[in-house]
Automatic annotation (TrEMBL):
Name recorded for this polypeptide: DoxX family protein
Organism of derivation: Psychromarinibacter halotolerans
Sequence intervals crossing the membrane: 43-64, 71-90, 102-122
Keyword Transmembrane on entry: yes
Residues annotated as signal peptide: none
Length: 134
C-alpha cells in the first residue's frame, strides 16, 4: 500500500493533465473551429462563446498545473451550471440528457480544488523550486 500511496501525486498529475487535454478540445472546437463541429462556432459574446474561452484558457492552465485550485474552482462551477441549466431541463437523468460529461468534469475539477495539482505542475515549481514534489 505504501508503494501505491507514494505514487499518488504522480497519478493525480496524470489525471489533471488528461482531464485538461480533454477539456481543452471543447474550447478549441468552440473558439478555433478545430476539430470542426456540426454546430459551427458560437459567437464569442454568447454564453457558448464565453464557455469556449473558459474551456480553452482553463484547459491550458489545468494542463500546465498553473493556478490549479482557483481555475478548477471556476471550471467546476461552470460545469455545474452546464449540467443544471443546459442538460437537466430536458430530463433529470444524465444518461438521458447527455450531461454525464458535464458531471464528471464538475467533480474532477472539484477534486483538483481540494487535492491540488499533484506532481509535475507549475504551481509546485513556483512553490518549491522543483517541478516534482511528493
Amino acid at each position: 500500500m505504501n508503494t501505491l500511496n507514494a505514487q499518488a501525486p504522480r497519478v493525480l498529475a496524470i489525471l489533471r493533465i488528461v482531464t485538461g487535454l480533454l477539456f481543452l478540445q471543447h474550447g478549441t472546437q468552440k473558439i478555433l473551429g478545430f476539430p470542426a463541429s456540426e454546430y459551427g462556432q458560437p459567437p464569442i459574446a454568447s454564453l457558448m462563446g464565453i464557455g469556449g474561452i473558459l474551456e480553452l484558457v482553463g484547459g491550458i492552465l489545468i494542463i500546465l498545473g498553473l493556478f490549479t485550485r482557483p481555475v478548477a474552482f471556476i471550471l467546476s462551477g461552470m460545469m455545474a451550471y452546464a449540467y443544471w441549466f443546459m442538460h437537466a431541463p430536458s430530463n433529470f437523468l444524465p444518461i438521458l440528457n447527455g450531461g454525464e460529461l458535464a458531471i464528471m468534469y464538475c467533480f474532477a475539477f472539484l477534486y483538483f480544488v481540494f487535492a491540488g495539482p499533484g506532481a509535475w505542475s507549475l504551481d509546485s515549481k513556483m512553490k518549491s523550486g522543483s517541478a516534482v514534489t511528493a
